[in-house]
Specification:
This protein is mainly beta and 256 residues long. It is built from two helices and 16 strands. The protein is globular. The protein starts with 22 loop residues before the first strand and ends with a strand. The model has no long low-confidence stretch (mean pLDDT 87).
């Protein structure tokens, strides 16, 4: 029963972060006109948890560039808040770049434009090796308040997850000593430069003999990077040091 709009409008766009429960979820959107005509839209979403396989992407966060009409930044300390929020989901490990010894997968840069009635934040993920922009996204709001930074951080991270979807597939062909083909392409929002993990799920889980609880799996993870994307398939090249002989057709694949 949360009210999205404070006053009537003719045309608008909005976004809202909703935490989904495992299994079936229903989202109801109720719209009422000034003349009391109403309509109800129900969205059904079935959340199926993806594989337990994880190898978080390491992101180095640079200090954001700022442009502001205000003497004091409303988003002061935004980088710390962004890092704190993104590190809670387990998909990414983000740190400010203070130690050159840390090996990051990507560099994150950002721009914040603060005006009297709006805030816009743009972020880019830059490939550490090629220095090319891998993913770029932004967020804009006119809902300005003293505690706006965390909300903006969560929306940016939601956008980032959309741009880097966590999806699963299989190896459908082994091309050469370093190349494979997987059954995911632009239809699954796969992008050139994405990092993936290849593994075999056939082994049994490790069980605690005292409690009987599942502790994990003894699985070898093989890293690779997407080098070419087509409609329903993609080509990937194995990371340096990986052995193509350890991979077979039908092995599972998950994006990092």
């Amino acid at each position: 029963n949360e009210q999205i709009l404070k006053s009537p409008v003719k045309q608008f766009l909005f976004n809202k972060i909703i935490h989904l429960r495992e299994g079936q979820n229903f989202i109801m959107i109720h719209v009422t006109t000034i003349s009391d005509k109403s309509t109800l839209k129900v969205l059904e979403i079935n959340r199926k948890p993806l594989s337990y396989i994880r190898q978080p992407l390491k992101i180095g966060v640079e200090k954001f560039r700022r442009i502001s009409n205000n003497k004091k930044y409303l988003t002061d300390g935004f980088e710390d808040i962004f890092i704190s929020v993104i590190n809670t989901n387990g998909r990414f490990i983000a740190k400010q770049i203070t130690d050159n010894k840390i090996k990051f997968d990507y560099l994150l840069t950002g721009d914040i434009v603060e005006k009297n009635s709006s805030i816009e934040i743009k972020i880019s993920l830059v490939d550490i090796v090629t220095s090319e922009i891998f993913v770029a996204t932004d967020i804009y709001t006119e809902n300005i308040g003293n505690d706006i930074s965390e909300e903006l951080a969560r929306k940016l991270i939601a956008n980032l997850n959309d741009e880097l979807p966590l999806v699963e597939g299989i190896v459908i062909e082994i091309k050469d000593e370093k190349g494979i083909i997987i059954d995911m392409g632009s239809n699954k929002n796969i992008k050139k430069g994405m990092k993936i993990l290849i593994y075999n799920e056939g082994k049994q889980p490790i069980i605690d003999p005292k409690t009987g609880l599942e502790l994990g799996w003894d699985i070898e993870l093989i890293g690779a990077e997407i080098i070419k994307v087509l409609g329903k398939i993609s080509y990937a090249s194995l990371d340096k040091g990986s052995d193509i002989k350890a991979i077979q057709r039908g092995y599972l694949v998950i994006t990092r």
